[in-house]
Amino acid sequence: MNPIMLLLAAGLLCETFSFSSMSLPDVDGPLERKTALVWMHPDRERGIVRESAQSLENCSSLEWMGSTVIGSMEQAIVQNDAQGGKPSPHPPGEVTIEILPLRNELRVMIDGKLYKKYKIALGKPQTPTPAGDWKVINKYTHWGSGFGTRWIGLNVPWGIYGIHGTNRPSSIGQDASHGCIRMRNHQVEELFEWVKVGTTVSILGHALGEPHRNPRDLARGDSGADVQLIQSRLRSAGYYEGPCDGKFRASTEQAMKAYEKAHGLPVDGVVNQHDYMAMGLVE
Questions:
Q1: Which of 29, 32, 239, 245 satisfies CB 3.0 to 4.6 Å to 255 for a cystine?
Q2: Going from the N-terminus, what domains does the chain have, and what CATH number goes with each?
Q3: Which pLDDT belongs to residue 144?
Q4: pLDDT at residue 10, as a whole number
């Protein structure tokens, strides 16, 4: 019998099965994030954290075939994604994209239901992929060297971010980029045909990053959702009057120094762990 069929017969489907009856590992880190920006879905991501360790373990036996199994007891779709299998038909209905950083996974949703998923590369901890709900603002073929065969741009206000191909396919499944979402070229070519300008791309997570890691230090020249969060806190406390645009400029540094001086912290204008704690962002 075909080895894939043997696995299906054995019931080794994952991802859409319920794991509520299993004892799942607690993989939360030492720092508990407080809900700062609702649109970043921190609670949704935490639910995914607890399921992902078990589900990925159950799926590991499939990876040698380069296949991803999406299924339920009634239906299973085997996709030979890693090796460039037969393209899926153009999906009917409204297409939206969900990105799960803890799984390094991009999901294509049709009318809110899972249609297809891909392994991806995301940003390094020092250059994170921006959490939030974004929109596609442009699409290009062969956009530039290093971006593979397709570019799908997002409306992130503090920089140029997008979904694109790669000339480094070995990075797929890792946190290896400068913040963009990397896909295998044949897969981004498929996705490129399904999305349009205005398509919603939801990157799950929290502004301060993955829960098992400490937030990164922030200083002048940095940008991101975490910078935007700090600016918002400084503005609420009366130390910052500039735009909350996620760009750490001199005005943010000056506001940070004023906050540190007023709270008896080392005055360096750099956001470190003691600053996060003083602001009530970590415990």
A1: 239
A2: 3-203 (2.40.440.10), 225-278 (1.10.101.10)
A3: 79
A4: 38
